User: What shape does this take?
Amino acid sequence: MGTRTRVRITAALAVFGLAATACTGGGSSASGPTGAGGKGGSLPRNETLYTTGTQWGPPANYNPLRNWDHATGTKGLVYETLFHFDPDEGRLTPWLAESGSWTGDKTYDVKLRTGITWADGKPLTAKDVAYSYGLGKIEASSFHSLWSWLADAEAVDETTVRFTFQEARYQEWDYTLFGQPVVPEHIWSARTEEEILNGVNDKPVGTGAYQLKSKTQDRVVWERRDDWWGTKALSMTPAPRYVVDVSNPSNEVVIGQLGQGQLDLSNNFLPGAASLIKSKKVVSYYDEAPYMLSANTAWLVPNTTKKPMDDAAFRRALAASVDTGKIVKGVYGDLVRPASPTGLLPQWEQFDDKALIAEKGFEHDVTAAKKELADAGYKDEDGDGFVENKDGEPLSLKLAVPSGWTDWMEAAKVIAAGAKDVGIRITTEFPDQNALNEQRGKGDFDLVVNNERQLSNTPWTYYEYMFQMPVQKQQNTVNFGRYENEDAWKLVQKLGGVKTDDTAGMKSVISEIQDIQLTEMPIIPLWYNGLWAQSTTGNWTNWPSDADGAPRSAPALWRNWLEMGGFETLTQIKPAK
Amino acid sequence: MRRYFARKLFVYALTFVVAVTVNWMIPRFMPGDPVAGMVARARVSQPEAAEAMRTYYTNLFGFDEPLWQQYLHFWGALLQGDFGISIWVFPTPVGDVLLDALPYTLGLMIPSVLLSWFAGNWIGALSARRKVLDNTVLPVGYLLTAMPYMWIAVILAWALGGQAGWFPLSGGYSLDIQPGWNADFALDALHHWVLPFLSLFLVALGGWAIGMRNMIIYELESDYSSYLSALGAPQRLIRRYAFRNAVLPQVTGLALQLGVLVAGALVTEIVFAYPGLGSLILAAIQNQDFFLLQGAFLFIVIGVLIANFLIDVVYVVVDPRTRTGMAGGTS
Assistant: This one.
């Protein structure tokens, strides 16, 4: 690229105060292109969208298969998926695909749109799609597990891809359809396995509306492609010519930049957001509590392999001891909502079995929690105000949340205080995040708070998170509490096999799962973390909100959210002048 | 002379080997498993897939080898200038990540250390002789050095950045600027450089000034000064001798300062979100990026050694006793 070296030299000269030298010397020694266009190196403000909050480090790579550390936008802006998912409507929207349907019990056909081209001018064909899905066959690939139930992906003709399954997991498949990026076979097939998995891919060629313009340590600049297929096929045009995604080291910096109108959209959690919104300095989805859409559920995870968390009665009592209202008000200033007893996000509300919740659900209730404890045989025998284990052993639990996550640290204190009220001794500890991740994976903890899973097309992803079996030595992303229940896991698998348009069928399985969940309480729902989004209106307006006539899409460019409305938001905003 | 430098070089080489070894050991015996962290971030929930990935990365980073082999490989790669691949900015080589940040740190630290040293010594030497200056510079100097560093940085940011609005509060250059070879970028970078520079400069300035002032007064009151004075030597001559003697400890101090350049930048860079090595070190620790951390520490080690070597050379010039020592005489 060369940009790297140039930046290095210029920066060194500039900061030494030799600005004049840099100007005169610039012409002769570094005559390479300084990236396309941009006189004087700056981007036109009225055509540029500045965003932040999607990543904390430098843009690392542009490899769409590295879905956890590629620069945000790599998937979504450059590489696209077959479908998008609309959380507001709760359905898939065709994207690269014109349509997709189950043509047999175990075959799914995708019909691609015609006339889609890669940024290098070559047409997108069914072969590209088959190839992209086929990359999961590489063992160390992050979506290798897909191929334990997918049997084959083949291009039937130019625009038809046929997927054949060993086991039709309908729910998971829909999730895959809007999650898996499509890459060009004519470029990627020349690469080694090593390059495919770990390559930096710094000249990404995708079908998307943007291409990589430039990158530095703290930002990446995407430039609109004016020949993007969607302009015609979808009648959508992203408004900003440039999208600059800035990685900021701290919230204070973000607040400063928002205040000065340097940023247009911040997807950070800003503790004082409510007051910024009330004073009209920034706008968000709702202009009153809860201000933000809900993005994921924060759970209190008990380690069910340890005493007394292996006892459902104890877990239920613990659940009833948590004053979620106090967390929502006191810690978050009403930026979030308390979770329902099932923990399902508001977007999945229809799947909550109301009757069941009325019968078996829980709420913050000190008396009920005390009674539940007493009934289960936990008594305070030494009179210190805290109950002991059933065998008389003293009971003391540790609740760990990552150090520096101030909101969670405060929430942990509220949880501990609530537990104290019912007689459970909980102390809080704040280890380093990485250390905590390791302990959590190994099951070396009593209680943690976690919000691993995001909103998706189906509650199935939440139930997999709760109940996945078998429990491993290292639990990576799911079932940290190591809860084992064959029946529940069978039901989750059964849910996975219900067709996604069969809402009644889904509801009936989900209500069976919820019955187990509410009785057993393997994991305790706390609150819904927000889809943090604060925007300024000085340069771009028409941000998504619940106001009449405003766009309803998700105002977030987080990883995987571009396919869940984030990209649509880019096409809806309008220049302020 | 040759023996002196040979001995010095040997000591430096030895220090280097020990430092590199310790450097290699520290992150490896830190709690936490970077590969587990990476696999966890990849959000692979299926056990077999996660296991395959873990094996793959353990191989890739060479963590599956016995420790002594990892150690040897580390040296081998190091001697070829290979610091490994950053985990945090995967898959960028650590060397590239560090080189990106280095100009910002050096551009901030070298001018602030050198300028504050020259200015501080000059002001200190002057104030040793002028009552008015002594009465103003000294208290201010004490105030500056005694103040917690964060305060000065935050006060500067608040006053000159926030209230006056003269300088930007954070970053190495503006959001709408594309780094490149042009005046716009150079001026913008310079604009962002002022506040962090000032904060470093001011704190160091006070320390140097006080040190120099006290030292000069001490020298002026020492026996040789009185003796020279009794002999009727002109004041200028006495002051010159006093200055030469007083500056020696300051040179040593400068060596130490130059050596810890990078580490010194840490707080500044974090306060001003300046994209240098200090910010990188913090990020490397937070993300358990072994290789990046090692690379950054190695820069510090090399920096300390080079700075000390340079000062050794300077000493030969400025301190006659060193030359006498080399020639085998007693001092």
User: Anything to note?
Assistant: Chain A touches chain B through 84 residues (CB under 8 Å). Residues 356 and 515 of chain A are 7 Å apart (CA to CA). The radius of gyration of chain A is 26 Å.
